[in-house]
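Need residues for this backbone.
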């Protein structure tokens, strides 16, 4: 009876041969101890592909191809650890779903305090559910970090988009433009006097006051500035 086969994969942070050899020896030792034949050792380098999902990296794509070849009879995937293998928990959840559907075993050599961890059948599905839950939490945390970061940049006066009318950009900071601030005050005054946004735009254009990029004023631009600066 033919021996089962495995494919080993890792993502390394350097191209040192010693690191590649260390992972290869660890994968071979595991396979020898379990009677599995190691068919291939695949390595991606972090400096070129670390920001990509597993199946978008060169060696990652090769892993998917080999695991899909029926003649190879590879059922086991040997990984170094989760952080080296996947870009994030979303990537991990997606890959575990594929492997679980195809009946693949996943062996993680460096699983925290455990020397190794084998995910198969129910264990694999349990890990998948946990990863999916973590992925949802991670998405929420990322959204919160972005929202908080934008708010903090706004409080500190840092630019996170285009330069708004009434300000100039100095590096990543916003500083008030005195002349444009005076124009904003006039807009607010005219608005309080009952002029429409279109009337204000026409008045500024007749006076030769230009918009931020030197063009003419339109009522929607005036409305945005007036609302942003206190008139609702």
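Answer:
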């Amino acid at each position: 009876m033919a021996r089962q086969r495995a494919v080993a994969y890792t993502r390394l942070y350097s191209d040192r041969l010693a690191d590649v050899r260390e992972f290869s020896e660890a994968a071979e030792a595991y396979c020898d101890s379990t009677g599995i034949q190691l068919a291939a050792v695949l390595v991606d380098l972090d400096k070129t592909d670390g920001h990509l999902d597993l199946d978008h990296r060169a060696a990652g794509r090769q892993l998917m191809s080999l695991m899909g070849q029926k003649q190879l009879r590879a059922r086991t995937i040997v990984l170094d650890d989760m952080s080296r293998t996947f870009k994030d928990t979303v990537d991990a959840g997606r890959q575990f779903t594929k492997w679980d559907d195809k009946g693949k075993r996943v062996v993680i050599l460096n699983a925290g305090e455990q020397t190794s961890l084998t995910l198969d059948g129910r264990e694999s599905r349990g890990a998948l559910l946990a990863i999916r839950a973590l992925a949802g939490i991670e998405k929420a945390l990322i959204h919160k970090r972005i929202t908080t970061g934008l708010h903090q940049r706004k409080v500190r006066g840092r630019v996170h988009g285009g330069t708004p009318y009434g300000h100039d950009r100095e590096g990543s900071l916003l500083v008030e433009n005195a002349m444009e601030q005076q124009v904003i005050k006039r807009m607010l005054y005219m608005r309080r006097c009952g002029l429409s946004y279109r009337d204000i735009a026409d008045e500024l254009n007749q006076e030769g006051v230009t918009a931020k990029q030197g063009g003419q004023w339109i009522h929607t631009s005036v409305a945005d500035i007036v609302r942003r600066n206190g008139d609702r």
